[in-house]
What does this fold into?
Amino acid sequence: MARDAVAEVARVGREVARAAARAVDAEGRFPAETLAALKACGALGAAVPAELGGGGLGLGALAESCTALAQHCASSAMILAMHHIQVASLADHRDGSREIDAYLRRVAAEQRLIASVTSEVGPGGDMRRSVAAIAEDGARFSLKKQATTISYGREADDLLLTVRRHAGASPHDQVLVLLLAGEYVLTPTGAWDALGMRGTCSIPAVVEGGGAPWQVLATPFGDVAAQSMVPVSHVLWASCWLGIAIDAVAIARAKLRGEARARAGTLPPEAARLAETGAKLQLLRSEVSAATADCARMRAAGDRDALASLGTALRMNDLKLSASRLAVDIVGEALGVCGIAGYRNDSPYSIGRHLRDVLSAPLMIQNQRLLETNAGLWMVGKGEA
Ligand SMILES: Cc1cc2nc3c(=O)[nH]c(=O)nc-3n(C[C@H](O)[C@H](O)[C@H](O)COP(=O)(O)OP(=O)(O)OC[C@H]3O[C@@H](n4cnc5c(N)ncnc54)[C@H](O)[C@@H]3O)c2cc1C
It folds into this structure.
């Protein structure tokens, strides 16, 4: 079952996403045809538990599918990854809520797309601080948030936002809130004309909306972040960057093999550089696969304490730091191997889109922030690093 689901996403990558990727990037448009194909094969329900009608895929299979898709269109893969992260956060913390169960059933049945609204004007990328707050309004709540970056904000059905628990709460006293289509207004305050990941359409916007009490998760956001959102994000983001790196190296290899065929018996001068890049790619694969396996094991066992432990926080932040750096390095090396053919946008060996897309990796939660967090963890932690 899981194998089939991953194979289906890989097929959508090969047959739909690859053909559209160049236009998606050039026009900075949402990869609508790829998302339609993903919905057609039920991919948006992959992270919904099987008992709620979803695919019930574990983290390992979700990660594999993101890597498979990113080899064809990184923006599409990042959209799929971000959606899975929202679903996993809700599914992990539904804690007996019949309404959240019913909502997740709808996600699987209707293939609803969920966007993430954590970044905010003021705290920026500091996910653990909010300015916006919930206002109680009788039996319903309302909120208004000024978001800096909402990927596929216009195209999503529903939104998952971080806000303060109430107007008097501290910036860290946050909850996760689900806003449903038709119950919020999203007003863009700018466009997404970015260097890369152009198909994610990550616009700045003001979100105003409200809902019923069940749409505010009972679990404090600090716990959701530590046990679900952060580890799942780092695994699935890193899986996307791995896919970009795999394709860049494949392009470099194809270029050199063409040259080798044309001059039989001689090794192209850049062949040793390709081999070096291949070794780095292997390192990236190993890091992503080992961290994914660790995290998947804890998730499958439902071990929330282990997921929220200091050691896991360090491990997952380390994954993000090393995968984002390695992926940028590998794609840069692939460009070096391809030379001017890689630098050109109109060549079959172009690496331009890969490089621009992968440069988002160190910024998507700034590495500097994670280093500062890890620095603190190193100081307080006990035992072996
Ligand atoms: C492709 C892409 C898609 C995205 N999609 C979404 C999305 O769907 N939803 C969403 O909510 N966000 C999204 N983001 C935003 C992302 O999560 C981060 O919020 C954003 O990339 C960080 O922005 P920033 O560079 O302004 O850094 P900030 O984190 O705001 O930091 C600003 C500056 O302060 C520095 N700094 C370092 N450490 C600290 C510290 N401890 N305190 C203060 N400043 C520090 C940083 O290095 C940086 O130079 C997306 C980003 C990208 C690249």
Remarks:
- The radius of gyration is 21 Å.
- The mean pLDDT is 96.
- The chain has three domains: 2-112, 115-215, 221-380.
